[in-house]
Amino acid sequence: MNNNSDFWIKWENVTLRDHRESPVFPGVEWLWRPGEQWAALGGNASGKRYFAEALTRRVPPLHGQIHLNLPSGPECMEVPTLANRRPVMLISPEVHRRILTSESSFYQSRWHSGLEEGSLTADAFISRQWVEEINPFEIGHRGVRPEVFEEKRRQFLNWMRLEPELLSRKLLHLSNGEQRKLILVNALLHSPRLLVLDEPFGGLDVQTRQVLHNLLSQLMKLGMPVFTLLGRPDELLEPVTHLLLLDEGRVVAEGTKEEMLDHPLARQLFREWVSPSALKSPMPLPSAKPEPTANKEEPLVELEKVSFHIGEKIILDQIDWKIYPGENWLLLGPNGAGKTSLLSLIQGDHPLAYSLSIRVMGELYNSTRSLWQIRQKMGWLSPELHLHYPGGWTCRQVIASGFFHSVGLHTAPNPTQMERVEEWIVRWKLSSIADDDFGDVSLGDQRMILLARAVVNSPRLLILDEVCQGLDIFYRSRILESIDEAIVLTKATLIFVTHYAKEIPRCINHSLELNEGRILQNK
């Protein structure tokens, strides 16, 4: 490693700009010296995204200068003679969003292969041609030798515990966690000298979080600068020596890790969320109608011997599952276990829902009409929906789109529907952002808006997939408390997915665990 300079990163009186071209992080002075390892802590409204993107020079600062004098990378990271070397690689929810939306026009398209024939396979996404941006008509390319690149690729895939069979699948067909791991492999193949990771552990199961934690820690111990931006102090990497504390577009404090973890902002982010000992019965929605008494003998969801595969990969294998009204299920399993595929079948997103033995609310998916009838009684929120939901709509319009299960509001709601929208806005204290553009509010506020969208039609079945992903302690507690409240108010039956044992609503009373497409546990 080359440590001859007196700094690796230097910010001189730097002021950044946000998406509205307004100033954020005014007058920042920051020096990263050789041998130090820095991280940033901040909540969902702290502006971490802009701080991370500034290091890639994707958007130049409004004022001041950012100097990078990065050391050469460790030998294990080096891809020799690489033609498209990038000194800084950023991995973030926004990068994930850009990759996915460039590959698909709507979030269900991952299952409609006929509409995405030209989409990338996982193999192509981390190929030498893709990484080095090789022109297919180029003659005499001077980049890395194919056999050398392939050896490094196998090494990085092994680091992330990704099986070779995954490479034949479309990028869109991978689970959220598998996509995030593959994006990291792509970043490593560019031989960066600085890794910038914004919420790197979001969407990853326990085992993969530990694998990534160990990998990043090892790279840091080898002297490579790795800058993580986190909302959870408990996810700080052990080799981190110094911290920046970020809040509302400002650097609140900076110093050694020990000093900064004693700061009030860090303590606030670190506190444990403790659910209330008993959920207070909320006042009913004014416009809510009494629900008919459910027949406990008729399952709300019934799957019988459900199986399917993609190529030679078994996605689901002989799944039998019945969900009765009043049951609230926790769906568990590692990345790639089949959870997302199972939920897509229940929601009718996957075309195989029409040919498999799947009955939802007493109906089979056998026509467009049956799909619409079932959807009218359903609400959902997932990482894929959030990644694909565009700006350009007010938060109020986004909530109203829940009546039509659309991404964007393309049908005018009637007065009764708008009354329901306003009820949830008032109940969950969203009035201050209701008329803001959805793309302009914080990640936590976006998630609250999408949760309101999921429950606005008082669904009988509510499907919530990793709804706390990437959220700070304030929004995690707010989301979980709101879910419990919504279940009481709507009397919906819940299917809930998480990779964090402490992020489970109190209303959960059943669990199903999957692994490699098979049921491990059902209770």
Describe the structure.
- The chain has 523 residues and is of the alpha/beta class.
- The protein folds into three domains: 1-73 and 193-214 and 222-271, P-loop containing nucleotide triphosphate hydrolases (Rossmann fold, 3-Layer(aba) Sandwich); 74-84 and 103-192, no CATH class; 323-338 and 378-522, 3-Layer(aba) Sandwich (Rossmann fold), CATH 3.40.50.300.
- Helix content is 30%, strand content 22%.
- The strands form four sheets. The chain has a six-stranded mixed β-sheet with strand order 5-6-7-3-8-9, sandwiched between helices. It has a six-stranded mixed β-sheet with strand order 15-16-17-12-18-19, sandwiched between helices. A four-stranded antiparallel β-sheet has the order 11-10-13-14, with helices on one face.
- A hairpin with a 2-residue loop joins β18 (510-515) and β19 (518-522).
- The radius of gyration is 24 Å and the shape is globular.
Main pleated sheet: 6 strands, mixed
Termini gap: 53 Å
Structural class: alpha/beta
CATH topology-level name of the largest domain: Rossmann fold
Outline? globular
- Radius of gyration, in Å, reads 24 Å
Low-confidence stretches: 105-116, 273-279
CATH superfamily of the largest domain: P-loop containing nucleotide triphosphate hydrolases
CATH top level assignment of the largest domain: Alpha Beta
Structural domains: how many = 3
What percentage of amino acids are in beta strands? 15-25%
Q: What CATH architecture label of the largest domain applies?
A: 3-Layer(aba) Sandwich
Report mean pLDDT, rounded to a whole number.
Answer: 87
Q: Total number of β-strand segments?
A: 19
| Largest sheet strand order | 5-6-7-3-8-9
Q: Classify the helix fraction into a percent range.
A: 25-40%
How many H/I helices? 16
